[in-house]
Write a structure and sequence with these properties.
The complex is a heterodimer. By secondary structure, chain A is α/β, with parallel strands linked by helices. Chain A has 5 helices and 5 strands; from the N terminus they run βαβαβαβαβα. Chain A is about 40% helix and about 20% strand. By secondary structure, chain B is an alpha+beta fold. In chain B, about 50% of the residues lie in helices and about 20% in strands. Chain B has a 5-stranded mixed sheet with strand order 8-10-11-13-12. In chain B, strands 1-3-2 form a 3-stranded antiparallel sheet. In chain B, about 35% of the residues are buried. The N terminus of chain B is likely disordered. The chains are: A alpha/beta, B alpha+beta. At the A-B interface, helix 1 of A face helix 8 and helix 9 of B.
Chain lengths: ~120, ~450
Amino acid sequence: VSIVRTILLVEDDRDVAETLAGLLARFDYSVRVARDGQKALGVLRAGELPRLILLDLMMPNMDGYRFRNSQVEDPRFAEIPTIVITADPRATKEKLGVAACFRKPFDVEALLAEIARHFG
Amino acid sequence: VSPRLDSPDEVLVACRSLARPSARVLDAGAAVELLSDDQAWLVQAAVDHVDRAQVATCAMMLGDEPRSVRDPVFVVARARAVVLVARPDEPTLAGVAAVQTLSCTRASGAVHRLEQVAAVSAALAVSSDLTSTLTTITEAFVPAVAEGVRVELSAEFDHRTHATGVATDERKRTLELTAHGESLGQLRLFGVRASTDDADDTLFVEELARRASLAVHAARTFRDLRAAIDAREEFLSVAGHELRTPLTTLKMCLFGMRDTSPSEARVAERQIARLETVVDQLLDITKMSAGRLNLEPEQVDLAALVREVAGQLDHAQQSSGSEIAIRVQGSPAGMWDRFRIAQVITNLLTNALKYGGGWPVDVEIDDDADVVRLSVRDRGIGIAHDALQRIFDRFERAVTSREYAGFGVGLWICRQIVEAHGGVIRVESKPAEGSEFLVVLPKRLQSEVA
C-alpha cells in the first residue's frame, strides 16, 4: 500500500464508513475514518493530510457544510480535493464548491472512477 | 372532498349560504349601483387574500329587520371559516390571520370603531405566541372602547366573575371568548358607562370579544399548522436519509460480491435499484400530494442537462439496445429548478428506453421565444388509446406491473413538476408505433414575472 494513496473518509454511519473503507482498501487506498466534521478537523490539524477527502453532509456535532467552511478557511486544507457523498438530493458540487457530489445510494463504480481520477 | 373556493362565483355562493335568509348577497358589480341605498353593505369577503388573482368581493343587501352590524360581520367571519375548511393550507391561514376585511359603506359610529380594531387585528397577523397575541388585543381594545373604560383580557374564563356580573364598586361586563366551540379566555370591561344598554355599544363590545376570539383562534390554528408542516418536512428529510443510507451500504456490499457470486449480486443489485426508485417516488408523492413542491429556480441550459442525464443512462441505453439521439435548435435555456427538471428528463428517457423496443430514441429541444420545447420520441410498443388519458394520473400505467416494474407514478410526478413550472406535458402515441412526450416550459416562472 502506497502511503500517498491516502483518503480521509468523514462519515457518521458506521456501516457505510466500514464498508466503504473496506472497499477502498481493496483498491489499495489507505483510509482514515472520522465520524464527524469535528473529528475530521482534528485529524487535519494534527498534520495528517490526506490526498482526498470523502465527505458526508448530515452528521452530528459538526455537519459536512460546517466542516467544509472550516476546511476552505484554512490554507493548509483548502486545496485538498473533496468529494461529497450525501443522501441529500439537493446537494450539488457547484453549491458546495467541491470536486464531485455523489448522492446516496451512489453508483459504486462511478465513485471509484472519480476517486481514481484524483490519484491519476 | 372538501369544497374548494377557487372562483369569485363560488365565494359568492358560499357567502349566500351563510347569510340570513332576509339578506341578499350580490356580486360586486351588481352591488355598486345599490351602494347609495341605506341598507346596502359592501362586504369584502375574507377570501380576497386566498388568491390575489381572484378577489372575491360581494355585496350584501340586508333585510328590513335588525339593522345590526352583525350581519355583514357574521358573513365575513363565516366566509373566513368556510375558506379555512376548504383550503387549510399555509398561505390561506397566513392570509386569514392577517386580513380582517370588513368595509362598510355606511360609517355609523359602531362600524367605524370596528374598522379600527380590524386594523389592529392585522398586526396579530401570523403571531404564534398566544401571550403576545392577547397583549396586542388588549392594547388594541383600549383606544377602541369608550373613554373611561378599562379592558382586561385573560386566557382563562372564570365562571365566578361571569356569574357575579356587575360588581358594586365598578360597573363591569364579562364576556367569554370562544371560537369554534372552544373557550379561549375572557374579556372584562370595567367602568362601563350606564349607556352600555345602548344597543350599538353592546353590539360593539360583543363584536370586540368575537374578533379577539377569532384572532386568537386564527393565530393558534396557524401555529399548529406551521408546526405540523415543519414536522412533516423534518420527517421527510429524516425518512429520506434513513432509507437511502442502508441502501448505500447494501450496494457497496454487493459490489464486493460481484466476483464471488456474480449472478446473485446482479439480481440483488436490480432489486436495490427498484427500492431506490420506490423510495424516491414515495417521498416525492408525499411532498407533491401536499402541494409543497418548493422550486429552486436557477439558470438551466436544457440541452446540457439532457446530455448530462443521457450520459447517466449509458448503462440503460446499452442494456435496452436503444440509443438516444439529441437534436438541439437554438439555445434553449430558462429559469427552472435544475434538480426537478432533471427528474422529468430522466423519467421520460428511462421510459423511452424501457418501452422503446430497442429502436432509437429521438430527443428534440427547441428554443421558441418565451418557451422551450422538449420532445422525447420512441418507436416502441406505444400506448393504447384508452390509456393515454390516464397515464399522467397517480398509480396508473399503461401496461401491467407484471410486464414492467415500477410504481406507476413517474409520469404523475413529471406532470406535477412541469405544471409547477407553469408548463404543460402531453403525449401522442399509437400502439406498436411508439410514443412522443412533449414538454413545453416557459423560460421564466410565473411568480418571477409578477
